[in-house]
Amino acid sequence: YQRRVHGETKGGILIPETAQKKVSEGTVLAVGRGLPDKPITVSEGDVVLLPEYGGTRVEIDEREGLYLFHQNEILAVLRQYS
To answer: What is the pLDDT of residue 36?
Structure first.
């Protein structure tokens, strides 16, 4: 039995924290209409997994910390709003 340390590969190589990719989660506040050949697969209220880099930072009605993401940038839907 061998326990892997976070940031260690299967081969035992340690990866510094600064080199590890970070992902974030966020809640979908709004969705657009999509395109005829690419229907929208997320809904308002869904909790999604997002990449460390990407998206466009926006400020709407003086609310900061909002980002716009294309649907293809979303890594996964963690919880669907029901």
So the answer is: 87
Whether the predicted pLDDT of 6 surpasses 80? no
Global pTM value? 0.66
**DSSP assignment string, 26-78:** EE-------BTTB-----TT-EEEEESS-SEEEEETTEEEEEE--GGG--EEE
Q: Which amino acid type is present at position 80?
A: Q
Instruction: Give residue 33's pLDDT.
Output: 86
The edge-to-edge listing of strands for the beta sheet with 23-27 is 23-27, 47-51, 76-79
